[in-house]
Every structure is written in C-alpha cells, then in structure tokens.
Amino acid sequence: MLEEKSDSTPVGAGNGVEASTGGALNFEDTTAAPVVVKAAKPDPDNIPEALKALPHWVPYRRREKGGKVTPFGQPKQDKVPLQPRHPFAPASTANPDHCGSFEEAREALRQCPQTDGLGLVLTHAWLDAPDLVALDFDGLRDPHTGEIAPDKLAEWETIKAVGSYTEVSPSGEGFRVFCYGGVGGAFNHGGVEVYPAGGAARFVTGTGAHVEGFPLEPRPVHNLAELLATYRPAERPEAGTGEDSGLPKAPPQIPGDVPERTALDLADGWLRFLEDCDQPPEHFEGDRSRALQSLTTALLAKDLEPAEVLGVLKHSDAFRVALDHRGQNEAKAVQYLWDGIRKAAARNPGAVAVGEDFSDLDAVEREERPDNRPTFRVVRLDDLESAEAPAPRHILSPYIPAGTVTLLGAHGGAGKSTLALHLAVCVALGRPFLGFPVERRPVLFFSAEDGADVVRWRLQQITRAMGVDPAELAEHLKVLDATEGDPVLFREVFEDGARRGATTPAFKTLDREAVEHRAGLVIIDNASDTFDANEVERARVRAYMRALAGMARRTDGAVLLLAHVDKSTAKASGSRQGSPEGYSGSTAWHNSARSRLFLTASGDGLTLEHQKANLATKAAPLDLVWEGGLLVPRSDSEWVAEEADLNRQQDEEDVLNAIRAAMDSGEDIPTGRAGPGTTHHVLTRYPDLPEHLRGGGGKRRFWEALARLERAGKIRREEYRSPQRKPKERYAICAGSERAGSGEASE
Fold this sequence. Notes:
Elements: H1 49-52, E1 57-69, E2 75-83, E3 86-90, H2 102-111, E4 117-121, H3 122-125, E5 132-137, H4 153-162, E6 165-168, E7 175-180, E8 187-189, E9 192-196, E10 203-206, H5 224-228, H6 268-275, H7 288-300, H8 306-314, H9 318-325, H10 330-346, H11 359-362, E11 394-396, E12 400-401, E13 405-410, H12 416-429, E14 443-447, H13 452-466, H14 470-474, E15 477-481, E16 490-495, E17 498-503, H15 505-517, E18 521-525, H16 527-530, E19 531-532, H17 538-554, E20 558-564, H18 567-574, H19 588-592, E21 595-602, E22 605-613, E23 622-627, E24 630-633, H20 638-664, H21 679-683, H22 697-711, E25 715-721, E26 727-733
Helix pairs in contact: 7-10, 8-10, 9-10, 12-13, 20-22
C-alpha cells in the first residue's frame, strides 16, 4: 500500500521563517535562517519495498569523470552498471537479461568489493510499474552541512510539493524522488532530470538515505506534470521529418577526407562542444540534444557536404551522445545523427535550432586565443588535501594497468601467444594468473598472426589444463581471426604531398568490437602484423600507441600489445647481460607503454621480466616452466617463495579486515567450522573479504589465514552468552591488532 503524504510539513519547510516575538520588532538580523535538510545514512535496505519488488536492479561501480567537479567541489563520477549475477561484467541497460532482483543485486553489492551501490533500470521497470517516475535534482544540498543552496530554494519547494518518497543522492548534493504520475515524456534541463519508466536506456541509483518528513514509499502525484512545468524546456515548433531535404533516409558512406575539428571555421565554444558535450551545461541550457541539432545546422552553414557533417559528428564526442540516446547501438546512433542532419538540411523556419540559440557556444574568442594555439585541460590542485585521488587500477596487478597500453615483447616462438591466451582465460573468468590477482572483465583477443585453427588448439590445451567449461568461457572471451583479411590497424599514408600516420578501417572495426563487447582487456597479437609503418620513427609509433590507449580508455580497460624482438635483443636480454631492453625499434615503444614485459628463454624454461612500470612497483623476474600445456611459476623459484609469503601476509590482513568490519557492525564472529553459521559463512557477508578468499580454493586459504592469525596472537577466542543466555564462543581481536583510529580491542 502506498503511503499518503502526511499533513505535517517535511523537514526544512519554513526553516527560513523566524518565530514570532510577541509583536516586538527585531532589526538586528533579517537574514533568513538556512534551510537544513536531514536524511538517514545511505542504506540500500531502506529503499522502499515497492521499488525492491521490481525485478530490474543492478549493482554499479563508480568511475571518475575526467577531473570534473560538482557544484560543491566534489569530483564528478560516472556510475557503471554491472550484472548482478556476474558483478565483474558491465551491464547494458538495454538488455533485460543484465538485470536481476533486488536481492540478487544486494547480494552482489555485499560480496563484490568492486561494487559501490545499487540502481534501478527504468528501461524495463514500466513492465511492472508503468506510471513510475524518477526525478533527479542536482546540486541543491551542501553534503557537509545539509544546507540547501540559496539559489536552489525553488527546486526544494518543488520537491516538497511533490511530497513523495525522497532520498539523498550518492554524492549527498542532490535528491532523488520516486513517485507515480504522468509527466509527458522525459527531459533533462537546468539540473532537473525527469525520467518516466520505459523511457531511454538508463538506470537511476537508489541509496536508501531517506529524507526526514517524506513518505517511506512512492505515492501518486496527480498534478506532477504541472509541478514540473517550470523546468521543462520551452517547446519548439515541430521539426520536419527531413523528407523535404532531398537526402536519403539511410546514412551515406563517410568520406575518407573528413575535416579535422581544428580545421573547421567554427567558434571556439562549438569546437569545445565537439570535444566534450558534457562541458558546463549552462553553456547549452542543459539540453545536449538541442545543442547538437544547433551544431549540425552551423556545420551545414559552413558549406560542408551532409556526409562530411556526419563524419565530423561521428568522430567527435557527439557520437557518445548519440550512443546514449540509442542504447549503445552504433548503427542506430549513426542513424540518429543522420536524421538530425536531414532535419537541419530541410531548413524549415523555426523547426530546428540555430547557432544563435546558444550565445555562450557561439561566442568568438579567436582574437584572444589564436587558432594554432593548443588547448589543454587544467588539472585541479586546490583540493588535494581533502579529495581522495583514486589509485591506478590494474586488470592484472602489477603488470597491466587499466586505461593504458602494456607491451609484451619476446622472440618468435618463445610462447608469448600461449601466455597471452592463458591470461585471456584467467581475466575472462576471474582466476589468478601466475599467482597474481586479476580484475574479472570480458576479453577480446585480436589474432593477426595465427589463424583460427591454431588459436582454437592452444585454447583447448589451456581450458583442459585449467578445467574450464568452454561454454562459460565463450560468454566472456571473444576471439577475432584477422589473418584472412588485412589486419593492419595503423599505417603510413601519403596525402597532399605529405606523409602521415592514420588508423585503418580495421582499427575502427576492432574499436567498435571492443566497445560492444565491453572488453576490459584487449589483446593484440601482434605489433608487426598490425603496425604498417617504420618501427624506428617515433612519431608513427607514438600515434599508434596513443590510438590503442584511446581504445583502452573507451572501454575503461587495458590493451596488451604483443611484439616480436630481433634475435640479438632476445639473446642479450635473456642472458641479462648487455642491453636490458626487451623491444625492437624506436624508444617510443618503450616510452609510450605504461608497463612493459619481456619473455625470454632461460635455462630449461622462460623468464618473465617486468622491465617498466609507471603505475606500480615492478615485479621481480619470474621463472616459468611448461607444465600440462601451460606456463607456470617454477616451484623452486626464490621469487615463488617470496610471493607465497606475501600472499599469506595479504590473506591474513584481508581476514583481519573482515573481522574488524563484522565487529564494527556489532556482529559476533562464531568460531565454528561446520554448519550454516561458520566463521567463513559470516565473514563472506562483508565486502572486506576479497573474492579470492570466498569460494573454491579460497576457503582453504581463508581457514589457513585464520589459523595463522590465532597462532600469532592477533585474534583470540572468548566465551559470551547469546540473547537467549546460551553460552557461545566468538572471535575477538587482540590488543595491538586493532585498526588505527578505531576503538579499543575487545578484552
């Protein structure tokens, strides 16, 4: 049953009105008191039951949004939806199979440390709640004091007038309102977002940080459209269908000589919009779609052919906007851009936006900043004391950092392709690789050297040795055989009397495959087959490596590029004498990679050297031997012993952190090893216990770490009585092992 709005005014209402003083006038201070909004602590379990009942939930993880900040100075963050049943895999909000029940998403949030919160996918929620609406009000509330910004009091009054379930957003700066009603379509304007269920492919977060004074469940609001009319963008005359433009309905082939953005005769504001459609929204009144239509009109006015305009938009940030509008479907996104071009070409008076609609974007600044002067993003430094700068992520720690290119060099036939395929299987299934932890992500393997039969044979040996189900692997690993066509991703071209490097159609296809597969790791085998330019020419090498790094950033993953080295390099590095550099060609290969590995013959096995690490501490050389078709660490290796000791120490710290978390929440940690309430069973409810200590072989490592902690005197057993006065035994942390800054250990 939906809770009706209380007759009492929600908290914050009237906070700015002074109490009566019995008629006496007080001229000392006429400033209205600030409106302070109190809310419960974020807790997904407090989300309304009506919303929990919807089977369209996903967990999500946070991701920094390019150095941008909120109105209250916090770093802006994107929220990447994940699949509740496979929380290491990104979710598509357009795919109902990627959603789950609230219980499934909640369990993924408990079990997976990579998740940060929960979200409801509105795309499919209309099936169960056709009139559900989510309202999002950004930048109203100081997250530290709870005060409403003075210039946002009107929005706060609107929230009170709606009077439905209201919670504080994850940033603490905004409010999310869930209600039932009709709004006449979704819109996003001036910091107010309105999304009815069944609209665009999107999800909205749920925090459970309920705002005091509001209902605990969403309620019907019969005048919802009227209450939100102030924020809805002004209606424009209906644009034509583009039929009178004379252009075909289907998008044309994009020409190969599309002008670069910097060569376009556009105002600086529009050039910046092409580079970043999320720049300060006040420049385009918070309406990216209309600004995009305005830009299209401006481009056509520069005498560009419609196909050229499509090419400019396709290779700009506008294409990301189009993908957002069309559920990440590239073909539909291109059609979306082309439909806009046809409407602009029709030039119906008043039917489409024009450049003058956005004066900030249309402002000409070239006299102050010449065209040939490059622009750079200024890095914010004033919040270094308070802000938490995220540490670099690794797909394979410490070897392969995310968002960059890692180079793996080896002499031909050394085994790098097999090693890379072994890595692909481990990342795709979330298994440790050579004893190192991985971030489980979908993997794309681009084979430009070996054909499908060879790759299949190698994978067959690997999956049999690892005991992997090929059907499960096929869901997360995608292999592309490029040997029968042109696998070149980057080549040197000669145009207008000058040589330059350029990515190829094959690169664009691979890039699209990576985005569609949501590949957290793209492995390219190898550089000599995909780079058709002089390997000693720095400019060409840098351009290729930057293109690959761009691919890694677009998927929030990493690229591993395999490369051959000549015989003399392999011999010198393998003996660890002479030149230590495990690559051939220009030093740009070394300089452009953020991490570089080298595999070389050593005695009766191989050695994996970590020769460069910009974003982590280099790993010690690792001796490998062939065992059952796989390269595995040599058991008598000094490194293996050191690494095993480090792993044991880390296991102990992870178990201790989970015990601390349980104690901090007031839970007793049982000492039993059998039955439904074992120590392991209780601690798996806390995200502090990492994935590798949970199922399968992780349980064995968990119990071994727990035993070592007890032997070392870091934890102890103590007797206590349950609420039913029954004697029981639990674990407690010994003095000296408590977390710094926490309360005293149990005595």
